[in-house]
Amino acid sequence: MTLADLTQRTGEWLRGAGPMQEVVISSRVRLARNLAGMPFLSRCSPQQTAELEKRLRDEILAAGPAKTMFYVDVAAAREIDRRLLVERHLISRQHAQSSHPRGVAISDNETVAIMINEEDHLRMQVIRSGLQLSQAVEEINRIDDLLEDRLDFAFHSRYGYLTACPTNVGTGIRVSVMLHLPALKLTGEIEKVFQAAHDMRVAVRGLYGEGTDAAGDFYQVSNQTTLGKSEEQIVEEFRDQVIPQIIKYELTVRQALLKNQRPVVEDKVFRAAGLLRSARLISSEETLYLLSMLRAGVNLGLIEQPDLKIINELFLLTQPAHLQKILSREMDRQARDEARAHYVRSRLGTSWPN
Amino acid sequence: MTLADLTQRTGEWLRGAGPMQEVVISSRVRLARNLAGMPFLSRCSPQQTAELEKRLRDEILAAGPAKTMFYVDVAAAREIDRRLLVERHLISRQHAQSSHPRGVAISDNETVAIMINEEDHLRMQVIRSGLQLSQAVEEINRIDDLLEDRLDFAFHSRYGYLTACPTNVGTGIRVSVMLHLPALKLTGEIEKVFQAAHDMRVAVRGLYGEGTDAAGDFYQVSNQTTLGKSEEQIVEEFRDQVIPQIIKYELTVRQALLKNQRPVVEDKVFRAAGLLRSARLISSEETLYLLSMLRAGVNLGLIEQPDLKIINELFLLTQPAHLQKILSREMDRQARDEARAHYVRSRLGTSWPN
Q1: Which of A149, A323, B36, B233 stands 20 to 30 A from A124 (CA)?
Q2: Are residues B66 and B207 in the same domain?
């Protein structure tokens, strides 16, 4: 498995078949860890940074936290490949844009990704399709244990795991789910979710994390407190209280919309289907928005085609770097918009339920 | 032939097969006439107005200016029928909304319409498909002669025909063409046409005449001067200079667009086609706009279907009064928007060139 194989398929988390998949796209858990006896990255000399990258890479590959893993040297990768990894949520934007030695170890099915030299020495992530927080936590704990057998992590008896940013100190854990909330968005009820999230110390972000807008009605919801609670408490509260409430709210509003404003919702869904099939120029932002409406339509039973799997794939494959990889050429914006429109039409086919 | 038959077909002027039909929808000529020895309508007593209506109706039907004519008593007509006549350009909005005795005599193919008691005692109109100003003028002169054999028109040896509004005094003639100018609109060049029109004493108005906006890139261009020039001069200048210049300008910009921005234009055309086929709720304004893009696409050779005849029919049949007549029920706005979307889909069919 190499980077080149990535464009041939989507990761496990996009297969669109996990629990509660009509609202929950994916569940993600990540841990932040730093080596004891080494400065945080912002204080490392170039030599220390390079040393860290080499040592951690070797240890991860030797520990084999996933059966088959491959490693991408992010510093040496082409820009388009770094973007590809961001679009797949395998590395962060910050990691893509840095300039020091760094990399990421990825499991074959992309459920595990371990960034080396992001904000912390190690950022381990497990991502799974649908609502699978417990399974994701189990897996990340297994990985953490395997690595801890070989590495000495910076740990303080009172504060817990030490991290570069104080908001991660403690367990260093962040749990998050990617939610699809078209009904809450359409009705404006999403504002109440923002308010409640703030009160519950939960962060709501856009599709690509910190500093990005919610595109196509997708929202990343994650915990903010890491200090003063155990890992179990954090995950339990998030999994058993916060997320079920938001899911229930979205589902209730969907039913109310169907009951009271069916023609309005149908109109949006079928227009999205029509535009995706007819546009000759289309941006990735508009594609995301239209696919989101289409996904809502399928989940509401308003439209039968296409399969959710195709919609999920298109979310990823119409992103700029993926599109260029699939078509094996680099393009400027207008050329991409034209190629994207053509690609979407070719994937959705010409026969359409009317 | 009666009012009820009107919704079964479109008038001659919408058949979309006249000269220069890729730019010129229709040519229209109208004359304003008043009876000598009777006050203008604003000064008539109710009795005189009623008398005028009866007398003019009888004379017109007896004179038989068109082989077969039918008469609509506009004052007695239902509101939806009056709107229907406005949508077909057979009476003006003012005529529809007045409250005094009034009517309109219409030829079977709708090329001739003679309004009684609009602003003047008589407003005769000939409307033809495409660029056919000379033919329209010939026909209206024939009608004018036939009526003048029976009626004594108010005429002043120095000022010419006397009319209620001074802008019509003289020949009482107004020539106009309905132009489809999508390329000039898209590029913003239409502003130059407005400026030039102003300099040439030509008025540019929207689809339904005075006080209406240009909807769907349709513009009504008409002469403003009636005093101090002969009928022939007015028509010649308008027909041989003003209109050909605008047509040439539009065609030049269309070719430039095709050469330099083909994907952008194609995108607009195919999106319009897609939306018309997929919307579940659609206003008459949006329908007009989308049909206009579709018409442009057919004329530019970008899209083969549908036939221009169908597009022209839909322009008319999707208007509120027509839609309700066709479907034989009166509806509120949302019900109309839903019914309109359904009707458009049924007319455009489900197989679409891709």
Answers
A1: A323
A2: yes
